[in-house]
Amino acid sequence: MKRRRAVLLGVAGVLTVAALIVLSPGFRAFRRQEADRQRAIGLGCTEACCAAQAAEAEDDWRSPRQADACDIYYYGAEHLAAVDRIRRTIAEAIPLRPGQWVADIGAGQGALVMRLGPLLAPGGRIYATDIDPAAIRLLEGLAASGPGAGIVVPRFVQGPRDTGLDDLPEGSLAAIYIITSVAFEHGDDVEEDVAYLKRLRRLLADDGVVVYHTDWVDAHLLDRDELVALFRRAGFGADVRDIPLPPGMPAETCYCAAKGDRGEPRSARLGYLLAFPKGKDPAARP
Ligand SMILES: C[S@@+](CC[C@H](N)C(=O)[O-])C[C@H]1O[C@@H](n2cnc3c(N)ncnc32)[C@H](O)[C@@H]1O
Fold first, then answer.
1. Which of 143, 178, 254, 284 is most buried (CB neighbours < 10 A)?
2. Structural domains in the chain (count)
3. Which of 130, 163, 179 to mutate to test the pocket of ligand 1 (most atoms within 8 A of CB)?
4. Is the C-alpha dihedral spanning 28, 31, 37, 41 positive or negative?
5. With bands split at pLDDT 50, 70 and 90, how would you rate the model's confidence at 272?
């Protein structure tokens, strides 16, 4: 009888431990990531092609050879025209006038800078920031000649939540563009993210806008509603505008996460393009 009770207790103990493991947030996150990885592989992005990319590439967006390594990698060749259309949509998202100042955060190779330059000349300014010194060198080239000449002001940022713009006068920018650059992820320090957005908000004119675009949303990134909630916490207005992305992009893709993650295949859904109005000063709200 005693033995039977001991066995029953043992079984109950094992079942309890198993249930605790299965229900634990860590195990659920592991299962989500594993399902995501399997979906990515189903989309044509295998661990082998990710390893090849990681070995080959210095960087994850400048090497065109990377796109060949996977069947789909962010954009297949047939989607590049759609990417260009997205940049055009972004440049037209809000009306700009010659002489206005804007910022392009994470300006990269300057795809947007080149579109905005003609709209702001003469007398305008595009503060083009980047965290990568190689991008800053490219932007310095654009500042010297081409549609950005005399308008582009490159600014190197020291870390992911350094705006590089804190010295600008309050209210001096008509728009701030954050286009597939600064990522807001689950698990980030929310207070730090809110403080960063508040510093950007301070720079906007009263009718100024942050235009934010992420091309893809994976399990790590905030989805549209979560991002809206984050901006609201930083004091941005409630009348957020969803700008439709032009057609031609697939609804889903796969990509290989950064080298540090050993090029792990992940799946991602098509992202969003949002315009966040500065909104009234929270202190002034009734
Ligand atoms: C995919 S490229 C996009 C370039 C450009 N915005 C466009 O859409 O064509 C991302 C760029 O953002 C830069 N970047 C990433 N995080 C950043 C941050 N927190 N602040 C400034 N630049 C950042 C990267 O160095 C890179 O040049």
1. 254
2. 2
3. 130
4. negative
5. very high
